[in-house]
Write a structure and sequence with these properties.
two-stranded antiparallel sheet; elongated
Length: 132
Amino acid sequence: MAVESRFVVIRHGVEVQTFMDKKAADDYDKMLDMADSLTAMLDSTPFDLSDEVKEDLSIYLAQNREDVLVALQAKKAKPAPKAAIEEVTVEETITTDTVDEAVEVVKEKPAAKKAVRKTKSKTASDIANTPA
């Protein structure tokens, strides 16, 4: 026997939609709450809108709230995603000439000098004359 968890969004006593994960159900419920608030706001406008248009407009605005916030300058627009960078592979045939050229370049470049730390070596007389 399989057990499934389902999350049901119920509005005004009516089952609206069923989801398989809680986050999706919560997000949808939150969007419907926003749409209800927007419908209430549209009810107080002086424009003569039908109930169906108010509801459709409210749901549209709630579903696109990020774009609405950007349009109202309440939020900065996210930068457009950079175009996918295609990986380019270059195949080169290695020949003896190529190897000879590489060897010559290595021979021409002087080796990097290592930093040498000079220390004064102590003699027996230096040690004997060192104050205790």
